[in-house]
Amino acid sequence: MDIHQEFTEWAQRRGLEIIDIKAQRFCERGMGIMARKDIQAKTVILRVPYSALRTQDTVSPKVLEAIKGSQRMSIHGLLAMDHIFLNSQIITTNTTTATAGILAKSSEGVGSSSNNGYDNDNYKPWHDVLPKFSEFQESMSICWPSSLQELLPPISKILLQKQQKKIQKDWCIASKAWPHLIYENYLYAWLLINTRTFYFIPPSKYRSGSNQSNSVPGGHYSILHRDDCMALNPFSDYFNHNPSPSATVQITNRAFEISTTRDIKANEELTISYGNHSNDFLLAEYGFFLDENPWDEVLLDDYIFPLLNSSQKERLECVGFLGNYILDRNSVCYRTQVVLRILCLSSLRWEIFVKGLDDGEKDQPQIDQILCNILIKFRKDIQKILEGISSLGGDFSTQKALLGKRWIQIDNLLKATLDQ
């Protein structure tokens, strides 16, 4: 039986309602969801009961016991440990024995083409359809050598650095709890959680105005920082991302539901939106990006900060406008308008603009020229970056192609602004 059909039946036995859709491979997009027949708008096509989700509340007590007494681990890291524990090659009643016996040799399964190295029948059909570690090694920049990571666009590089800090903190706790755990195994599980989870808080756990993640007895966590609001969601993770999705996600009192937003034709791919994300964000967090993305943008900080003196930086920081200067497909952001004006206006004129007492139209030609000079320099540097990517040796053709394509997109975005 096809592994995707086997997984579908496994999911249905666990209470999922999969209605007139199926998993399907699409050219250049990988696996996704296809309509079996014509479907009307506002039709529920998938219903996943809470009992089928993997969340902080379903983490094995043995995993919680293993990290007891440690500093707080993120839900992300905890779900990664739980994923490894539940799906290891040997499960015993002794957590230490289990991890020592399985995790020391589980690297054999990392990147396996058959079953990801997992033999636990309870979850094997699900894990058979998950991405292999070799796929992450090609697409996820956290797996790349530093020579390639240095060539990432600015936003992707910032996100990568945040990821590295997060996983190192989680890995420190996990490796102390399970000394025989192999880093590549943990990285693989961590990336599965990073790329496959959905934002989720059960309605029973909503607490108005709370931004805290407080531990409770047994190692569980109460509500919840935004970064900890996540659930592994079987079958739902087949849906590909589209900024103009044909389906939408809703959390009800009993289930996680996906419904159509418009009429769908038979054999058409159904998509959801992962959020209003730029291509640099998608590249860093998911290992892909879009050919056409209305939310695409580029960070200009590396080209604006060198133009500022210390006094200007202090003034910008005082009014909350230091850094995060963005150019999108339509224009530069207001923050960029503010910082460009501090480069050429008197203090009084600049303060009047910042306070909203002047729309700045009179000064705009001068501002546009400064921006033009910045973008021209940026474009020249992109050509050097593309040359650097081409000159890299080694077996990194997929990674080099991703980087090259992304930098060409950025160059086109800059060119479009200059041509306006």
TrEMBL record:
Superkingdom of this protein's organism: Eukaryota
GO molecular function: protein-lysine N-methyltransferase activity
Span of the signal peptide: none
Pfam families (UniProt xref): SET
Record-annotated SET domain positions: 14-275
Stored InterPro entries: SET_dom, SET_dom_sf, SETD3_SETD6_MTase
Protein name: SET domain-containing protein
Species for this entry: Erysiphe pulchra
Lineage: Eukaryota, Fungi, Dikarya, Ascomycota, Pezizomycotina
